[in-house]
Each structure stands twice: as C-alpha cells, then as structure tokens.
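Slide 14.
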Amino acid sequence: RMGYSVVAVEAEPSNLRMLRSTALLPQQAADAFGNVSIAPVAVDDAPGFVYISRSDSNAANSKIEAQIQEGVAVEDLLASTYRHDRSEGSTISKVPTATLDEIAREHSVMLGATFEDVCMLKMDIEGAELRAFRGARRL
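Slide 15: predicted structure.
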C-alpha cells in the first residue's frame, strides 16, 4: 500500500472509465489502490456544470470549453468559446464541477483522513488552474 492517500480527479467520461478500470486491476498488494478515491468532476471555482472537449486523436487533451449559463443555448455557448481545432475532431461532454475545497472535504473523509491532512496538490488542468485555486479558499 502506498504511504499517502490520493484523490484522483477526472471529469472527461472516457478518461474516467480508464481511470476506474485501472483502479480495478490486480496488484501485488491486495489493497494497493485502497487509499485512492476518484472524484468524477471537473475542478472549478464553483459547483455547477461545464462543457469539456476531448480531442478524438489525443485523449490526454481535454479542456473546459464553457461554463453552463442559464438561458443560453448550448450551440451558442460553444460557438462563442470553442477553442479546439474542429478539423481534428473532438467530443464535447457536459460534466459536473466542484471546488477543490469540496473535493478535499468529501474525499478526505472517504479515505479516513481529515481536510487538514491534505499536504499536496498536483494539477494538469490545461489552463484552468486559476479557476481551481479560486475554489480553494480553505486549502
């Protein structure tokens, strides 16, 4: 068993399926992934929903494209903010969001720890780091 608890945050549906499958793979130690909790959300500055895109040619390349705005049609929202090159092909998904504070609070309890036990954050969120940190007022 690894020495620290890990919260893996992944919102993009195909990457989330791969992450969950990986956590189920047989390991040398029976509880090797016993200290890993998966948060199936995108990190943002507030809870809600966003649209994310994933390149069809590179599953590691996914980005938040737009926050859901009440009264704005999906097509209009994406047309005004869509950043991927449409010629390469991409998949758009509506996913839930949570703040870093919410994720840490919920998953630390699931892992038998406390909010104050969080000692490190590692993010690879394609330019959304500032929005993520705005949702980390207590961390």
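Speaker note: The first strand starts at residue 6 and ends at 9.
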